[in-house]
Amino acid sequence: MALPILSAEARAGALQQAVAVRKERADLLADIKDGKVSLRDVLGREDPVVARIRVRRLLEALPRIGKIRAGQILREFGISETRRVQGLGTRQRERLLALFPAQE
Q1: End-to-end CA gap in the chain
Q2: Which ranges does the record mark as transmembrane (predicted)?
Q3: What domains, with CATH codes, occur in the chain?
Q4: Residue 60 has pLDDT above 80, yes or no
Q5: How much of the chain is in helix, strand and coil states, percent to nearest 5?
Q6: What is the Cα–Cα distance from 75 to 59, expressed in whole angstroms?
């Protein structure tokens, strides 16, 4: 599948939009780390910002969860390292929420 040919203006607009989405995603992950936003709130959202976050990054943003523990959780629940939030199944979401009841 060939990429569409964009004008310089369209390319600049797409770049600005991508930067804005990345900033919003980073702000959301920082709010999770600070405890301002709960895991339940994040998993309940259905917007492109949340949908494209990798589950591993989401877990690592939770307080007291590092790279090792996030990897253990992914393996225990059978979630791929590259899985994004939009690709989580209903049971996987429920198990994550049950694992972090304080994050609700």
Answers
A1: 42
A2: none
A3: 24-103 (1.10.8.50)
A4: yes
A5: 70, 0, 30
A6: 13
Place of tokens 């999770």: 32
Q: Taking phi first (over 0 means left), then psi (-120 to 50 degrees means alpha), and beta for anything else, what does residue 83 get?
A: beta
Query: Half-sphere exposure (CA, 13 Å, Cβ side) for 20?
Result: 7
Range 22-43 average pLDDT:
93
Which tokens go with 34?
């600070």
pLDDT score recorded for residue 3? 80
Contact by Cβ (8 Å): 30, 62? no
Contact of 56 with 74, CB cutoff 8 Å: yes
